[in-house]
Design a protein that fits this description.
Shape: elongated
Number of helices: 2
Structural class: mainly alpha
Oligomer: single chain
Strand content: under 5%
Number of strands: 0
Helix content: over 70%
């Protein structure tokens, strides 16, 4: 097999990744936008403190959305 050929299993995997990325992209972009706005708008007094927890929580929420989307995708394939 040449280096340009993609095994069928990898192609299927790549298709699943692409589908999940397309599903999650709007949510990710929206959350990223809100985080960037918050970072730009925060006062110097708040740069360290509560904002750190907000950013951490946003990251955890995003990780959970990815996990839930992956689980839902697997369930769809099983039916």
């Amino acid at each position: 097999m040449s280096s340009k050929q993609v095994p069928v299993a990898d192609s299927t995997r790549e298709d699943r990744i692409t589908a999940l990325m397309e599903l999650l992209r709007p949510k990710v972009e929206d959350r990223l936008r809100r985080l960037v706005e918050r970072a730009v708008d925060v006062s110097e007094a708040e740069e360290f403190g509560a904002i750190e927890y907000q950013f951490r929580d946003a990251g955890l929420d995003l990780a959970n959305e990815v996990r839930q989307a992956a689980v839902a995708s697997r369930k769809k394939r099983a039916t």
